[in-house]
Amino acid sequence: MFDIAGSALFETVERITMSRNAIALYAVLAIALSWCVQIPAIMLFGLDSPVINNIFIFIMWSPTLLALVFILRNPAVRSQVLWRLGKLSYLPLGIVVQTMIGFAVVALLIAAGLATSGYFTFQTTGVVVSGEAWLLGEGGQSWVFFLINVSVTAIAFSIVGLLATTGEEFAWRGFLQGQLTSQFGVLPGIMLLAAIWWAWHLPALLMGYNFPEHPYIGSFILFPLLMVGASLFFGWLTIKSGSFWPAALAHGTVNSIQQGLIDNLQLQLPQLYVDILRTALFLVVGIVCLFLLRSCQHKKQAELYAAGAAGN
Q: Is the pTM of this model over 0.70?
């Protein structure tokens, strides 16, 4: 249980939170390191080179490598890093929500007659599944078996995705979010993290990595909004669980099964509208989390992450 001793520990932690100058230095260095690798790598190899994927994995780990330097230089901060598993019940939630967003995009576009899926043919009695991505196989499946197939596949790919997303989420949610919320408050801190996360991605965005058909609209409108929605959801998961791991699994789901579902659509409308729909769904989830986080707005840092401490 989170007892008086645990409360005293967190009150001590609050007094040794990183200064705003230290937080700003970390953010600037994380963004600069990302840019200094992204820009020459993309210019040298191009976005279609297999080499660039390995470089991007290093970039995804760069915030954590930098965070470890800050932690080593300030050992007192180590006790604030949310690296334990926390409340286990939150681990699958990010996988479920992000998989549902992917299927919502697929379902809405198919229902509107604006796309077909290369993976699925939906029928009243079940689903015909195609493609080797689905771990329990292809062919005609009942709705129950189809849901099991999707669940097993989503969990597996999300866990594999941790090889990359842990590098970001240990730093953003496990290390930096607590520092920002302690210094600026819950919602301002999470919004600042969304802005840092957006800026960290910017060179690849401008060069067409996520939005090749509309890089400027994507870079300066859609992706910032997507970062707001994702940061609210990932931030809420982190606060409720007391751990960065649920956010890392959710991030892995976005990069794997959600992206795969959307990429496999045969579209009868411009990609821009699909990106707008996906961003809107992220914002819907984020707005729900915004209201859930409002109750945390006036809590002290000791109270904010107390539930996670109890789960550890």
A: yes
